[in-house]
Amino acid sequence: MRILTEHGPKDYQAVWMEGGKLKMIDQRLLPEKFEIVVFEDVEDVGRAIKDMTVRGAPAIGAAAAYGMALAALKGKDLDESGELLKSQRPTAHDLFYAVDFMLGALKRGEEPTKAANRYANQIVEKCRLIGVNGALLIKDGDKIMTHCNAGALATVDYGTALAPIRVAWRGRKKLFVYVSETRPRLQGMKLTAYELRNEEIPHAIIVDGASGHFMRKGVDLVIVGADSVALNGDFANKIGTFEKAVLAKELRIPFYVAAPISTFDFDTESGKDIVIEDRDEDEVLVMNGKRIAPEGCGALNPSFDMTPAKYVTGFITEIGVLDPEQIARVRGARI
Ligand code: MRU
For the domain with range 2-125, which CATH number is right: 3.30.200.20, 1.20.120.420, 1.20.1250.20, 3.40.50.2000? Predict the structure, then answer.
């Protein structure tokens, strides 16, 4: 991804391995501060996943793959390390998929760094293909709405929902992106807008409650990412996705979900079985270290919601755009 630094634009990935250490952009500090953090132990990688130093399903998966590589290089118990990583966040399917991928590769004797790099490189290539496939759905002049951050920061590079937007923009299509701020962690405002700004793609930040207003005024399509997709096409994504999907159907706006096949959980029949993460109430009650809610008031903070398949126009994947009914047929397409 292109990041504008004081010395001009520079290319970065969200996570990568260098000199036997895992490096990642600290996403909690953006956009105010661009800082790279370094990890040498699987336990610290687990903490970084939990506290959202790294976030977004495919990037969490890649961080976990590198965490497994660090565990193997230090001679730690692989099954225990895998369980530790898997226990950090419950919804992003890529986390479970990446740990199992690494357990298979390491137990077959593959060199740890090589196996994790193979995993991360494949994710990047899948996101690039999601961009190519999804860009075909975008017409010159389209106004697109997205939610949360499903960009390069969330996926190592390119993004899922942002990949088609990047490819269409680089292909000289004029477009405009509505970015919903995404309370409470503000991934839309702080991360998606940051990525769009770095690429100079026209956009505006809107509050979450303004989605319906702008959809009625003329959004041409909605593209979001996913944290987990069930066999029947129900999917979980950042809280607030469901209401956008319902509004889009009511207003006849195509609603697309962009995700690599590693996000598809073929063992989960339907959305009601997807585990939704509840996070700390302070994420809602406290802002910039200061409590903004009245003393004595509590909050509920589900991090994701589940959107039924009937609201999805199509899933933009690395192997093409799929109808919800086609999901069961692509089980074998995973790496
Ligand atoms: O809680 P987060 O920031 O990890 O949630 C991220 C999202 O919901 C993204 O939209 C989703 O992971 C798709 S990322 C490509």
Answer: 1.20.120.420
